[in-house]
Amino acid sequence: MKGYAVVVGAAALTTLLLTPLVRLLAVRFGAVVSPSDERHVHTVPTPTLGGAAMFVGFLVAMAVASRMDQFSEMFRDNSEPLGVVVAGGVMFLVGALDDLLDTSPPAKIAGQVLSASLLAYFGVTMFYFRVPFNSGLVVLAPDYAPLVTVLWVVLMAQAVNLVDGLDGLAAGIVAIAGGAFFLFAARLFDAGFLEGSNVAPLVAAIAVGVCAGFLPWNFNPARIFMGDAGALFLGLLLAVPTITIGGRTDFDFSGNTYFFFAPLVIPLIILGVPMLDIAFSFVRRFASHSPWHRADAGHLHHRLVRLGHGPRRAVLILWAWTALLSGVALLPTYTNRGNAMVPFALGALALVLVIALHPGRHSARESAVRARHPSQQSVVGEGGETGGDPGEGAGLVEVVDLDSRRRRRA
């Protein structure tokens, strides 16, 4: 654990110290996000491209690890660490170009496919595909393994990108998920199921480090955003452990299936019932004749804010939800009991989240307000815009007297 602590510290410290420099460069080169539409919770122009600091932190941590005896087996005669670095660099550049130039969705997907293909070229591919809530495995033929790996990496990158909607949300979720991955990998190593050459625990630990170093600058009110450069890069980092652990092990070990799907399951549960939020987004945009790729404010983290939770509280709720989901899956891994309960527990948690935070509750509340006060209108503002503590939801749902506003204007 001492060696991993050094690597995490190197990643966190580098990212923490480099982020203010990246922030200044982002302002100089015009990489600034304006609060120009309803998706943005911030009220002032904010620099983006924070993923650059995270990527450099990752490079420094990998360089430190390569010089330590503890990780010599991992870096000796093994192309996978180099593959993670190269693929991570391409994924970062794809996101950075979008942050700077606003590239088209097909171009972004093509870049992500290139990054994932490089990862597979250097040997980071899965051999098996696990079946959810089942001990069965699909053995991938050599011709199909790279293809499935590429699709998996792209899906993981998109999953992390989906939750990057509030200050600190994606960084915190990846830090928690990465920590859970590391604990799971450590348990496998102690049980003799994981070789010392496997890059999964190192990549998971570095993901925790870069997120921990970035969060002080990114938590509400954020002084810089990670942008697509950071979100897509973090998605690749979380995809690697799923490929090199769940995608290569054919034994039945508690939590194996969950942690194979974790980077996908955790964001999708946070965004609603798994898969339903993405499907609902597609249907919603199709019904409104909007492009399918255009982001909107219909995801769960936006609904949390509209329900009256401030950006900080909404993020803390979703962090706690991620930790709870990971804890449910980790408990049987360390106790060897309760395996059969994991699928039901995850389903129950997802159901409670949807029932408690269904967007219809907010609509009903607004209707009741309008019924009692015909001359008033409910306005959804942005974090802290109407006064109060922006972290505690003050002013997020404001009742505006339209008649008195007209009188003041007159």
Kindly describe this structure.
The chain is mainly alpha-helical. The chain has two domains: 2-357, no CATH class; 360-409, no CATH class. Helix content is 64%, strand content 5%. The chain has 16 helices and six strands. It has a two-stranded antiparallel sheet. A two-stranded antiparallel sheet has the order 3-4. A two-stranded antiparallel ribbon has the order 5-6. A hairpin with a 6-residue loop joins strand 3 and strand 4 (137-139). The longest helix is centred in the first third of the chain and has 27 residues, at 2-28.
Share in helix: 55-70%
Spans where pLDDT lies below 50 across 5 or more residues: 270-277, 359-410
Strand content: under 5%
Inertia-based shape: globular
What is the H/E string? Answer: HEEHHHHEEHHHHHHHHHHEEH
Number of strands: 6
In angstroms, what is the radius of gyration? 22 Å
Strand order of the largest sheet: 1-2
SS-derived structural category: mainly alpha
Mean residue pLDDT: 75
Rounded to the nearest angstrom, the distance between the terminal CA atoms is 69 Å
Q: What count of domains describes the coordinates?
A: 2
In DSSP terms (H or I, runs of 4 or more residues), the helix count works out at 16
Largest sheet: 2 strands, antiparallel
